[in-house]
Design a protein that fits this description.
With 226 residues, this protein is mainly alpha-helical. The chain contains eight helices and two strands. Helix 1 packs antiparallel against helix 2 and helix 2 crosses helix 6.
C-alpha cells in the first residue's frame, strides 16, 4: 500500500511556496518602517518561517527539507517564466512594458541573493527547531520557535541584503536594513506565536503526528530520506 499524502501537509507546502513567491515580488520595493528601510518582502516572508516551524514540529526535518527544496524549485520556475515574459516582444498596444519589467524583472544579483538567503535561512531554521525539540524532549515550543527564527531570519537577512545591496547603498544603510529585517521578523514571530501554538496543537491532533527526528541525516541534499 502506497503512503498517502496528508492534505494538511500539502496545503502547508503550497502556502509556504506562495509566501516565497509573493515576498520575492514585494522585495523589489524598499519601504520605510519608522526611520528604517527594508525590502517590502518583510511584510509576508516571516509567514514562511512560521510554516517551516509548523512542518518541522509536526512532520519533522525530512519533510521540511522536501518543502524547502520544492519552494526553491517553484521560485526558479517563476523567475524563468517572468524573464521569458519580459523579453518576449510586447503587443503594439501594450504600453506598460517598462513598469512590468521594473516590478517583476529582478536582476540576476537580486535573484541569486534571494534564493541563496532563502535556502540557508530555511535550513538553519529547520535544523534549530529539530535539534531543540530533541534536546527539550518536545517541551518549550515557544522558545524553539523564537530561537529558530532568530537564527534563520538573521542569516537570511544578512545574506540577502549583503549580496543584493553592497556597493549600491551605503554600509550604514545596509547594516540598518539587516538589523531592522531581523528584528521585525523575530517580533512578527513573537506576536503571532499564540496562533502558531494553536495551529500546531490542532494539526498534531488532526494528523496524529508529533515527529522526533532521531537517527536522521541533516544533510540538506539527502533527499532520499523523506
Amino acid at each position: 500500500m502506497k503512503n498517502k499524502v496528508s492534505v494538511l501537509f500539502l496545503l502547508a507546502g503550497v502556502l509556504f511556496a506562495a509566501c516565497l513567491l509573493i515576498s520575492n515580488i514585494l522585495a523589489s520595493k524598499i519601504i520605510l518602517i519608522g526611520p528604517w528601510s527594508a525590502p517590502a518582502g518583510v511584510l509576508i516572508f516571516p509567514l514562511a518561517y512560521i510554516i517551516n516551524d509548523v512542518i518541522v514540529e509536526v512532520w519533522g526535518y525530512t519533510k521540511a527539507r522536501l518543502i524547502i527544496w520544492s519552494g526553491f524549485g517553484v521560485n526558479l520556475l517563476a523567475v524563468f517564466f517572468l524573464m521569458l515574459a519580459i523579453y518576449m516582444p510586447a503587443a503594439p498596444f501594450y504600453n506598460a512594458q517598462e513598469a512590468f519589467q521594473t516590478v517583476l524583472g529582478s536582476s540576476v544579483r537580486i535573484v541569486f541573493a534571494s534564493l541563496t538567503a532563502y535556502v540557508v535561512g530555511s535550513f538553519l531554521n529547520a535544523y534549530v527547531m529539530s535539534k531543540f525539540k530533541l534536546m527539550t524532549k518536545g517541551k518549550g515550543f515557544s522558545l524553539r520557535a523564537i530561537a529558530s527564527t532568530m537564527v534563520g531570519e538573521g542569516a537570511d537577512s544578512m545574506i540577502f541584503i549583503t549580496i543584493a545591496f553592497v556597493g549600491i547603498f551605503p554600509l550604514s544603510v545596509i547594516l540598518g536594513m539587516i538589523l531592522v529585517q531581523a528584528l521585525l521578523k523575530t517580533a512578527y514571530e513573537i506576536m503571532i506565536l499564540p496562533l502558531t501554538i494553536l495551529v500546531v496543537r490542532k494539526v498534531k491532533a488532526f494528523e496524529g503526528e508529533d515527529t522526533f527526528d532521531e537517527n536522521i541525516s541533516y544533510n540538506p541534499f539527502h533527499l532520499k530520506q523523506v
